[in-house]
Structures are given as C-alpha cells and as structure tokens.
Design a protein that fits this description.
alpha/beta, Rossmann fold, 8-stranded mixed sheet, 11 helices, disordered N terminus
Amino acid sequence: MPSALRLNFSMTTTETVIYPYPLRYQSIHDDITLSYMDTGSGTKTILFVHGLANYAAAWKYQLSGLSSTYRCIAVDLPGNGFSSRGDFPYSMFFYAECIRQFIEQHKLTDVILCGHSMGAQVSTIVALRYPHLVSKLVLVAPAGIERFSGTDILFMQAMLNIGDFLYADEFHLETAIRDSFETASPDMPKMMEEMKKLMENQPLRQWRSMTIQSIHGMLNEQVHSFLSDIRQPTLLLFAEKDRLIPNRFLHPTLTVETLARQCEALFQQPAVHVLKGTGHFLHLEQASLTNQFIRDFVL
C-alpha cells in the first residue's frame, strides 16, 4: 500500500472545520487511519457513511437526533474529512473494505449501515459482501441504484478527462454543494467553507485523484444487478428535487419517483419514501423527517 499523508492538518483547518462531537481515530491499516465521531449508548448501532468528497459532519443532525436511543457513529472515508490521505485506489470496493475493517476492529454487531449518495453504494457493497455484519440498510439519496450503460460510462469518462466534473476545484465544489440543496439552508455556506478548507489542506492533484477515482468506481462497480440479492430490510429515502440522483445528464427522462418505484420491485424488503421539496442533502434540509423515518425503521 502506498504511503499516506498522516493526518497532517494545519491549526487553521482544525479550528475552521467544526465537528459536532469529538473526533476519534482508528488505524485500520499500516497506512490508513479513519477519523470518526461516536456518540450515544443504545443497544443498536447506526454507522453513517458520507457521500462523494464530503465528511462525517454532514450527519450532525442524525447524531444529535438519534443518539438518545442508539449508538451513532459517523466515519470519514479515506481521502476525506480528517482521515488519512494518500495514493489509495479510492474505489467502491476499497471504501467498503475500510468500513468492513472498521466494523470488525470495533467488534460491532448487527450494524444498521446508513449511507448517503456514494456512501449508500459503499454501504450496499458491504451488505452484499458481508451480510453477517449488517442487520439493516438505510440508503439516503442513494447512488448505485441506476444502471449505467457502456455508452453512459464512456461519456462520463470523457467529461472526467477534460476536467469538467463536480468537485474538480473550489468553483466546482461550490456549484456542486449549491445544487445539492433545494432551499437556502444555513448549512449550505457552512459546508462550502468547511469543504474548501479540507480541500486546501492537500495537494489539488490528490484531491482530484480521489474524486475522479471515486466517480469511476461508482460507474464501474455498479450494484444494480445485485440489489435483489440484498437480504436485509432496506429503507430508501429519495429527494423529490434531487439534481444528482438520478443522473440528469445521462438519464434526463428518469424521474425520482420512477427510480423509487423501481426500488420497490428490486429489493427483497424495501421501505421507500420520497421526501417532498428537498434536494440531495435531504438529511440536512429535512433532518427531523429523515430521523423519524430512520427511527421508525430501526425499531
């Protein structure tokens, strides 16, 4: 495994990027240390996995709203937040293996795995490959549900090659975050500022490599064909005004409602809801409703 940047964050970064609970660190490999928050003490554990080029603090309302009943853990994936950065593969299977090792090293059992966007695709892979570790799945504005054709993949790869993609630099990052909110939430400018600080704390080349490889992973490590193999009860939460899921460029006629109905047929034990009037970060925009759906599902 290539050597990693060892959590070498400046004082400015650690002061500007605020996590709502104390950060802890878990070494899962010689070169990989994951940062995470751990709060609550219930008999059931919910493990939250963030999306593409994001961070664990995006789950702040879930940790504050659910930790009175459940143990809630939110982890930064490698290359994100305050976890190790380095020349890692940054594929869906790589992330899934990191989550698997985290669960096993913490000796967690019957985990409810909750993923947002790319994190939902990662969580799905963990549930498929290691069903004994995951009792239930919560997929929030999930990536991985759509099927991408060879032509779709070639088009996206061409876009990546010319650098015209979300999260490529500060401008694209701000645009992507702005497009992920439907309402003028105070969380939007805060996330922009914090994500920019995290981006600035590593070479831009490395940031781009992480995001590009992650997008390649979402396209090339598809799970659509295996969704019917998921045995765990699965809660799927979609956002009516989502501009990212489904992919508006590749599938302009596919609606959120149609995708949600497809999931009812694909999964063995689905509970599907479309939250009205909200964007991709529905767990921030409609945190109370999201928490209620999760609470009712986990019981």
